[in-house]
Design goal:
14 helices, about 20% strand
């Protein structure tokens, strides 16, 4: 298999500290101050942190009490998701003026395929710059962008010059860019995989590229083939405007740790009912029920069961969650419970994309 580059022009736009930036925009007195969106209570979790807070090490998904220890002057504000959705809608409206191939990943980031764009601009770099300027002029927020030949490289590149910057990885620069990259920067390589790779002497993309596909699959399973391809610039996933959900979930963090299974079942009943509403609103059902348990020591455990039929009913979800709860002894008191449903009927109806077994080198001549 040889190295490959694609002929697409992909932009990954990522808003800078989106939730926190919206709050600072709407409340000028908060500008320049360390800010966290989320719960500042003992049980709360940081949803987003301003760059002023990040200097102290405050990050999203961090427990509120820990964030406050790192930054005693941290200001907590409650999230306003309706407002964030409103702003996100304005930003997406700008995207669609350039291309219909927009794949939102969340409220604050999206992929855009501008290979053939509505402005007729052959330079993806200039398109990204124009989009970022319009977001600032029309919405009042800054955004960062990554521009390259595929989604994977564009997403990695968007993090390079944050905040309020962009980076282009031209076709002829792709291989060198990936070889010089620390493996922890590879999208999909988490802390556990990073540690495992480091132990094997795999620190950079060049180290990763030196390993055979057989070696990588032997040590990392199916993900090994993925790593083998992406380090060679092979990532053929197209920008999908109608991005399908792979799962739906509902969860609750409790004000006090729960040790009694009776209390856990009561909470699970409410969670199952909430999940049923979300499934109904999205008109989907699924077969795989997963119970999520976060213990008081913050360790996370999931237990799953795949049913022989599609379900969306709260009673069935609850009964399956109960079975999973009793599947094994609880290791500690619990601070969070959640139920998710995957293997959805929308996915079942779609055929799986065929894996490309052979790739050829495509040399690009157009201007990025």
């Amino acid at each position: 298999m040889e190295d490959i580059v694609s002929h697409r022009k992909i932009i990954h736009v990522d808003m800078d500290a989106f939730y926190a930036s919206v709050e600072q925009m709407d409340h000028p007195e908060l500008k320049g101050k360390p800010l966290a969106v989320g719960g500042g209570s003992k049980r709360g979790v940081v949803s987003a942190a301003s760059y002023e807070a990040r200097v102290f090490g405050v990050r999203s998904a961090m427990p509120g009490f820990k964030a406050r220890k790192l930054c005693p002057d941290l200001i907590f504000v409650r999230p306003r998701f309706d407002r964030y959705k409103e702003i996100s809608g304005k930003i997406r409206k700008i995207f669609f003026e350039y291309t219909d191939l927009v794949e939102p990943l969340s409220l604050d980031e999206a992929y855009l395929d501008v290979t053939q764009n509505k402005k007729g601009n052959p330079s993806a770099t200039l398109v990204a710059k124009e989009i970022r300027q319009r977001i600032f002029d029309e919405v009042g927020l800054t955004a960062s962008a990554g521009i390259s030949i595929n989604k994977f490289i564009a997403k990695v590149a968007s993090d390079y010059n944050k905040p309020n910057g962009q980076k282009t990885v031209n076709p002829e620069e792709v291989i060198t860019f990936l070889e010089d990259l620390d493996v922890k920067k590879f999208y999909g390589v988490g802390k556990v995989t990073q540690a495992k790779m480091y132990q094997m002497g795999i620190y950079t993309g060049k180290d990763l590229k030196s390993k055979s596909e057989e070696f990588l699959t032997q040590h990392f399973g199916k993900a090994g083939s993925h790593y083998y391809r992406i380090v060679r610039g092979i990532h053929l996933s197209a920008v999908k405007p109608n991005r399908e959900r792979k799962s739906l979930a509902a969860e609750r963090t409790f004000s006090e740790n729960i040790a009694s299974e009776i209390y856990m079942l009561e909470r699970l009943e409410n969670i199952a009912e909430e999940l049923q509403k979300r499934l109904k609103n999205n008109n989907v059902a699924g077969r795989t029920v997963t119970l999520k348990i976060k213990y008081s020591d913050f360790t996370l455990q999931t237990r799953s069961k795949t049913l022989p039929y599609f379900v969306s009913d709260a009673n069935i979800l609850l009964e399956t969650a109960k079975e999973l709860l009793y599947q094994d002894k609880m290791k500690n008191s619990v601070r969070l419970l959640g139920i998710s449903l995957s293997n959805l009927n929308t996915q079942h109806e779609k055929k799986k994309e065929k894996e490309h077994k052979e790739f050829e080198v495509i040399q690009l001549k157009f201007d990025f």
